[in-house]
Amino acid sequence: MQVLLLGGHGKVALHLTPLLLKRAWNVTSVVRNPDHESEILALGKGLKGKVNVLISSLEDVKSAGDAQKIIDTVSPDYVVWSAGAGGKGGPNSTIAIDQEAAKHFLTASFATKGITKFLMVSYLGSRKTQPTWMPDDQWAGIVRMNSEILPTYAKAKQEADEYMTALAAQRKRDPSAGHFQAINLRPGILTEEPATRKVELGITANGRGSVTREDVAIVADELLARADTEGWLDLVNGEEEISEAVERVAREKVDAVAGEDVEGMVKRFFG
């Protein structure tokens, strides 16, 4: 398998890359800064898969055509979006990368024959409606984060997530469209600690919970390795072993999009 990893020098991506290579998958890691190339290439030492680095700024992706050029260069089977402005460059960069470039890659990926999976790393609070399983105090924390602390980031992530959800819903209605896994992995507050390998995955009442970046990568790797994972999957550290949690959400078809207006998303983007 060939994986296109966007945002390859991000901390989650740096944990994810060797996990994918251990599966004998090849990874093309897209980074902006050429100084990071040697660090990423070193991640492949002694592993079965091959890692390549593509130097490209996602802020320069202004259309689906721009995204398509990168996709055509790599010819991936799977696409992973683990990119973001990270608060650098102000609101304009956040909108350009987290929202617009993400949408352009989604458009191109869904339209490209041969791509069968797109995993988006989003965040747990990227939603408009309080879910039935979340207490008022936890939801209030998310609302404050989205409206007062990181409003531009929240807007950008919601737009990209809803676009992805609308594309996936639309594709399912097309009997001629092939199987496609649209996986929206939604971690809580990210931490630097080593992996615990224990999580709450799928739906969690812990709206302000945290999760290690390494655990996010391990979950992403296991989700990508299966043919039956899709939808919105919230993620915080918890008590369930990761492999068991992934098996459960796949078996039970857990989707944290519940309560959101998916039909409204489809109408907004596609009329």
- One letter per element, helices H and strands E, the order comes to EHEHEHEHEHHEEEEHEEHH
CATH class: Alpha Beta
Tally of separate domains: 1
Give the CATH topology. Answer: Rossmann fold
Supply the CATH architecture: 3-Layer(aba) Sandwich
Number of strands: 11
Task: Identify the strand order in the major beta sheet.
Answer: 3-2-1-4-5-6-10-8-11
Query: Could you tell me the radius of gyration in angstroms?
Result: 17 Å
Protein name: NAD(P)-binding domain-containing protein
InterPro entries: NAD(P)-bd_dom, NAD(P)-bd_dom_sf
Family: Belongs to the avfA family.
Organism: Penicillium arizonense
Please tell me about this protein's structure.
It holds the Pfam family NAD_binding_10. InterPro entries: NAD(P)-bd_dom, NAD(P)-bd_dom_sf. Residues 7-225 form the NAD(P)-binding domain. Belongs to the avfA family. With 271 residues, the protein is α/β, with parallel strands linked by helices. It has a single domain (2-270), classed as Rossmann fold (3-Layer(aba) Sandwich), CATH 3.40.50. It contains nine helices and eleven strands. The protein has helices at residues 11-22, 37-42, 64-74, 90-111, 136-149, 151-172, 213-224, 242-252, 262-270; strands at residues 2-6, 26-31, 51-55, 78-81, 117-121, 181-187, 189-191, 198-202, 210-212, 231-237, 240-241. The strands form two sheets. Strands 3-2-1-4-5-6-10-8-11 form a nine-stranded mixed beta sheet, with helices on both faces. Helix 1 links the parallel strand 1 (2-6) and strand 2 (26-31). Helix 3 packs across helix 4, helix 5 (136-149) packs across helix 6 and helix 6 crosses helix 9. The model has no long low-confidence stretch (mean pLDDT 96).
